[in-house]
Write a structure and sequence with these properties.
Elements: H1 2-19, H2 24-48, H3 60-63, H4 67-73, E1 79-82, E2 89-93, H5 99-116, E3 121-124, H6 134-146, H7 148-158, H8 170-177, H9 185-194, H10 198-210, E4 218-221, E5 224-227, H11 232-243
Parallel strand pairs: 2-3
Antiparallel strand pairs: 1-3, 2-4, 4-5
Length: 245
């Protein structure tokens, strides 16, 4: 009898000691809840955090539908003269190695400007059919940085370099710049040397090709394309019609 009682006492003490030990089921449940909560927080934070994925760069040429608006939006890429308040716009897109562009500026443009310059906004968007003439377009924009009038004068004069040994060169550009009254030649030369406007001409190339320009000169009169040097009478008739006179 005493042996049985002794065994019972030892068994009851072991059971009591075991009952006072850690409750692993409870601890496991708490850990599980914490892990689930932490996982949920991470997902929520990722969903609501700013996304850093880079957006695709749009192709400029695909966005251009109105070249006059393009020049208005990016004035550093164009030269503008005439009546800036006019609703009638003529955009000229030249290549500075193009003989037809030179002929237009020598013969047709002066007559059109005499007849209509007070009535229309005339924009020049320097362009290049290839890499050789891109520096000349950039030089036009360098002159325009000092004033739009100087930029227009340089545009009209630089065609005179065609066929010469200094065509599309810094020496040729300096020679033209020295003919323009009031232009700071040193500042102009520095602009040409650093090449900062070459990118603008490249953007003009992309934009012009995006609206169908394949040859020069090309013009847009109130958004309507005119290809080539059509002569004074054709331009006169079309501009007069656009003005409603």
């Amino acid at each position: 009898m005493s042996k049985n009682m002794s065994k019972k006492r030892r068994r009851s003490r072991r059971e009591e000691e075991q009952s006072q030990g850690p409750n692993w089921n409870l601890i496991g449940g708490i850990v599980g809840v914490v892990v689930i909560g932490l996982f949920g927080f991470i997902i929520f934070a990722n969903i609501n955090s700013p996304q850093t994925t880079a957006e695709p760069t749009p192709v400029l040429g695909e966005q251009v539908v109105n070249v006059a608006r393009y020049c208005e939006d990016f004035p550093e890429r164009c030269v503008v003269t005439g009546n800036l308040e006019s609703d009638t716009t003529l955009v000229e897109i030249p290549d500075y190695g193009c003989p037809h562009c030179a002929a237009f500026n020598a013969d047709t443009a002066p007559l059109l400007q005499e007849a209509f310059i007070e009535d229309i906004t005339w924009m020049v968007m320097p362009f290049a059919l290839g890499p050789n003439t891109r520096p000349t377009g950039a030089a036009v924009l360098c002159a325009a940085e000092q004033s739009q009038e100087m930029g227009m004068h340089f545009h009209e004069t630089v065609f005179g370099l065609q066929g010469s040994a200094v065509a599309h060169t810094a020496d040729g550009f300096t020679a033209v710049a020295e003919q323009i009254e009031g232009l700071d030649v040193a500042e102009f030369d520095a602009c040409v040397a650093d090449g900062r406007n070459l990118a603008n001409v490249s953007l003009n190339q992309q934009a012009a090709r995006g609206v169908g320009v394949q040859s020069t000169p090309t013009f847009f009169l109130n958004g309507t394309m005119i290809r080539g040097n059509e002569g004074f009478e054709v331009f006169q008739s079309r501009i007069a019609a656009a003005l409603g006179s």
